[in-house]
């Protein structure tokens, strides 16, 4: 049961218009955004930040950004965001083999060395305490430029906010997110948990 109930999608017209972004990303407006509408300034700022972070300005693909979001959410234990991130990765063109083997990104042949460096970065930067180290930095700089690294940290930081929001809120999972969680993550122990 959610700490605070989501409001109707029509509650705030400006949020509703901005939330059209999520129709492409997820196929629905997330309950997290509908909960944020209790203070529309937060919902609008969040959506604008999300659009800025997920914009592609370098070689960091939309699919990789969503896989980084999954690794970040897995590190923090937020089941809600894990399901959302894997769904978005699927919708943004992650390879089927990557989706099926996301838990083995470090060793599975579906992931390139550049992707592994990005996903290791997401894992290290999401842990508490933070485990970023010179080895991860060196691997990042082997494959990515500084602007791309900033894009990546934007994703990690955005999901740091979302993981705290949704795990504390106990945000209810939507049907589409549940479907993706079951398809790609359930075999590894994923469950809805508190997000019912």
Automatic annotation (TrEMBL):
InterPro entries: AhpD-like, CMD-like. SUPFAM superfamilies: AhpD-like. Gene3D superfamilies: AhpD-like (1.20.1290.10). Residues 40-122 form the Carboxymuconolactone decarboxylase-like domain. Keywords: Oxidoreductase, Peroxidase. It comes from the Bacteria. GO terms for molecular function: peroxiredoxin activity. Pfam families: CMD. The keyword Oxidoreductase applies. This is Putative peroxidase-related enzyme.
């Amino acid at each position: 049961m959610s700490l605070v109930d989501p409001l109707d999608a029509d509650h705030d017209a400006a949020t509703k218009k901005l939330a059209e972004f999520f129709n492409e990303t997820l196929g629905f407006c997330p309950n997290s955004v509908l909960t944020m509408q209790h203070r529309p300034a937060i919902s609008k700022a969040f959506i604008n930040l999300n659009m800025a972070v997920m914009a592609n300005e370098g070689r960091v693909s939309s699919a990789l950004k969503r896989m980084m979001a999954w690794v970040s959410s897995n590190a923090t234990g937020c089941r809600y965001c894990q399901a959302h991130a894997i769904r978005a990765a699927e919708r943004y063109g992650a390879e089927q083999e990557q989706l099926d083997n996301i838990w083995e990104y470090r060793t599975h042949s579906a992931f390139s060395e550049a992707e592994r460096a990005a996903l290791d970065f997401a894992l290290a930067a999401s842990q508490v305490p933070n485990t970023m180290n010179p080895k991860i930095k060196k691997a990042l700089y082997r494959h990515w430029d500084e602007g791309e690294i900033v894009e990546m940290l934007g994703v990690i930081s955005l999901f740091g906010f979302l993981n705290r929001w949704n795990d504390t809120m106990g945000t209810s999972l939507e049907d589409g997110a549940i479907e993706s969680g079951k398809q790609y993550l359930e075999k590894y122990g994923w469950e809805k948990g508190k997000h019912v």
